[in-house]
Amino acid sequence: MPVSAAVTAIGLVVMWSSGFIGAELGTREAAADTLLMWRFLAAAAVLGGAWALLRRRRLRPRAIAEQTAIGALSQGGYLGGVVWAVGLGVPSGTTALIAALQPLAAGALAGRLLGETVSPRQWAGLAIGLGGVALVVQGDLSAGPAAAPAWAYGLPFAAMAALLAASFLERKARAPLDPMDAIPLHCLVSAMLFTGVAVAGGHATPPPSGTFWTAVAWTFLLSTVGGYGFYWLSLRRNGVTRTSALIYLTPPTTLVWAYAMFGDAPGWTALVGMAVCVIGVTAATARRRPDRSARLAEDRVRDRAVSRVPAE
């Protein structure tokens, strides 16, 4: 794997996982929609202002329309579904496990919708990764049913589907934008969506707690700028299947974050699950090296092409 691809993968996993910690910090002080509203208001103001000062270029109407839909799905749909489900009482482990089904869905659809080849080795890696995620969240799943309405368990599925749909839309976009242009637009769309939800629910007023504003800064810098920035970058460089497979590493990485921040020590099943996730993602994302015969054939073709070039 090239160094740039490795850095992109590590950045995606670490920054995407940071969202849970920021959500934990913020929802201790306020409702989930309050945190999401102020997170994206801050993101839209800072990133939008930076874009106006540093880039300020005319965007095609088609690009704006495409990125509006992508932002509404990838941030509004995904984060709204996950946070709302947890707020209604769906265990966070169950929510994480359902959301982690995205790689399997991406692998199943990538070939038909995008023409990306999903090899048997990648399918095996995706399946192993799902098993690792199941081990990581086993403690939550065995804790008993939460006091949540039955329909609330459909929200993580909707969140997973929203992020997957956004990924496919981005890959099929006819007027694709650089992440430096797309992310500020995504944040503006999300700010309008979550502000409307918070105002309608009477949760728009932020608490005066410094912890809440620390959570807003955390989620803005690490989760929005870092997480979504690396996600779209990885999607461009590595494709839907490989990028989605990296999502398997976010539940175990979140356990590391939680241990470092809150002292929540993972159990042995979680540690085993981390190792299984690494094995599965390695199998699903590693690029297959061509065998010796294929390399020799390529060399012969190149040599014949060079021999046909007339000497100066």
Show the helix and strand layout.
Layout: H1 3-27, H2 32-54, H3 61-87, H4 92-99, H5 102-114, H6 120-136, H7 138-141, H8 154-172, H9 179-201, H10 210-246, H11 250-262, H12 268-285, H13 292-307
Brief summary:
The protein has 312 residues and is mainly α. The protein is built from 13 helices and no strands. The C terminus is likely disordered.
According to DSSP, the number of beta strands is 0
Provide the structure class.
mainly alpha
Element-by-element helix/strand order: HHHHHHHHHHHHH
> First CA to last CA: what distance?
38 Å
| Largest beta-sheet details | none
Count of discrete alpha- or pi-helical segments spanning 4 or more residues: 13
**Radius of gyration over C-alpha positions, nearest whole angstrom:** 21 Å
Low-confidence region ranges: 301-312
Tell me roughly what share of residues is in helical segments: over 70%
Strand content: under 5%
Mean pLDDT: 79
Shape: globular
Molecular structure report:
The protein is mostly helical. Helices cover 78% and strands 0% of the residues. The protein contains 13 helices and no strands. The chain has helices at residues 3-27, 32-54, 61-87, 92-99, 102-114, 120-136, 138-141, 154-172, 179-201, 210-246, 250-262, 268-285, 292-307. Helix 5 (102-114) crosses helix 10 and helix 9 (179-201) crosses helix 10 (210-246). The two termini are 38 Å apart. 44% of the residues are buried. Mean pLDDT is 79; it is low at 301-312.
